[in-house]
Amino acid sequence: MFFRRRARMLRWLVCGRLGPVWMWKALLLFVAIAFAGQLLGVIFNKSSVPPAPRSVFSSPDAQGPPLGACRPHTHIMFLKTHKTASSTVLNLLYRFGEERRLRFALPPGYQLGYPLPFNAHRVKGYRGPRAVEFHILGNHMRFNKLEVEKVMPADTFYFSIIRDPVALAESSFAYYKEVAPAFRKAKGLGDFAEDPHKYYDPRLRNNHYARNLLWFDFGLDHNANFSAALAQRGEAMIRQTFKLILVSEYFDESMILLRHALCWPLDAVVSFSLNARQQKPGGLGAIGGSWVDKAAAVAGVGVRAGRQAKAPPDLSLTADQREKLRQWNALDWHIYKAFNRTFWKEVDRFGHAQMAREVALLRLRRDDLARACLRDGGKPVEAHRIRDKTIRPFQSGLVKILGYELHPGLDNATRAACLRMIRPEIQYKDVLDSKQFPRAQSVQGQAPPGPQSQGPAGVGGAPFFRQGPSRTGDKAVGRTVEEGDRDRDWDGSRLMRSNQTLVRAQEAGRLR
Ligand SMILES: Nc1ncnc2c1ncn2[C@@H]1O[C@H](COP(=O)(O)OS(=O)(=O)O)[C@@H](OP(=O)(O)O)[C@H]1O
């Protein structure tokens, strides 16, 4: 009786209160399936790459509005004129070429024999006029058409960029104040503009930075007396060779014309301004012991050991002085006006409404990329504040040249793409060089200082960005800055005497 009652109670408990058996079986099965799923999930996640987050660079916006039926140009010569936003333009050529594994015609140092006229032998790896092997030529040079044609294929697209000579003079004065004797002697740009002849001696090296610098970079005689006929001849020579002349003041419109001329996607012409000068210089206390500062010191600019820091140059100009600067740079002023007109005729042809649409898209895209890539909303920062020393921009003169910092924690692919956009010219050249000449780089890295050295790093010809603070600067040449300066140009390249002028050692035997 007692046992029967207990059994009934048990049945009631199991089947009544706790539910029927089939329910328990179903529950058990569900738990087993969930557990197996969880287990498989863990295994699956461990054994395969997690799906990559969609990079901002793979967005459909990267392409921009359609270009019609055209094939992207890959044979390009960019005449990198000085102080015209040319480093920003070169950056996009570097990026485009690197992403597509194109070959660059690179200098052994950082400039192609500048300020001497370009010579094909200045290109690293050049093997003669019939060896067609380079896609892009864009480092600083003094243009020399016949020599360039030996390096670049016949279907090369030639383009360059110009800037208002007054703005260019401000930028040049700030950057080359201690380099060009004419600027060095003047108290400020205003003083120089008042009476340039008082300061300017055409025989002195590096004075080309002080007069008709555009004209000089195009390979023309920048000291010639102005005449309308001469100016038009120079203009015609430029027109004959260069398919497009961009205007720094209209940089974004320039980028749209360039993208259509080259048949390139929108992202290829989106950039962050590089090599910008800090407009309101902070205290000079910032110039200190970093490798950038030392490199500037070795180059003979900025603060020298044991001397007082100099004040940043006075760039203020009256309206009258601005006009005087235009007259002093009359040849540049002529080509600026002429190609400015041509530029706006191109925009007319392109269509103003379409231009406005594409410029708006370009700016949106730049904002998107700045948000994705850059710290502090993309605000340029002083070199010494950039934690990653390998992306600090080269400093020249007593103004600060600004750079950028990347957002921390970017995924590898995004970081690589962002880095390309902000990597300064000198470091980027070294990256490309080491890709094109992997073996030569390791040998060059060990080489003693020699005449191959040319460029802002200059010292020893060693790649710029690889040098840590202790290896950079005066120590690398084993001489003090003052000793090292005497027979070196501002960018570290060697000079030798020829009659009364100093010329670069490497070119002396080769060029007439
Ligand atoms: N996107 C864009 N638009 C307009 N201006 C720009 C741009 N990018 C760079 N810059 C300005 O160009 C100046 C530096 O020119 P370069 O890079 O040609 O200088 S260099 O000759 O290579 O040293 C330098 O001018 P200053 O700041 O007046 O010195 C830069 O600020």
From TrEMBL:
Keyword Membrane: yes
Main location group: Golgi
Basic and acidic residues: compositionally biased ranges: 472-494
Biased composition (Low complexity): 440-456
Membrane protein topology class: Single-pass type II membrane protein
Any Gene Ontology CC annotation: Golgi membrane
Keywords noted in UniProt: Glycoprotein, Golgi apparatus, Membrane, Signal-anchor, Transferase, Transmembrane, Transmembrane helix
Stated name of the protein: Galactose-3-O-sulfotransferase 4
Organism: Salarias fasciatus
Gene assigned in the entry: gal3st4
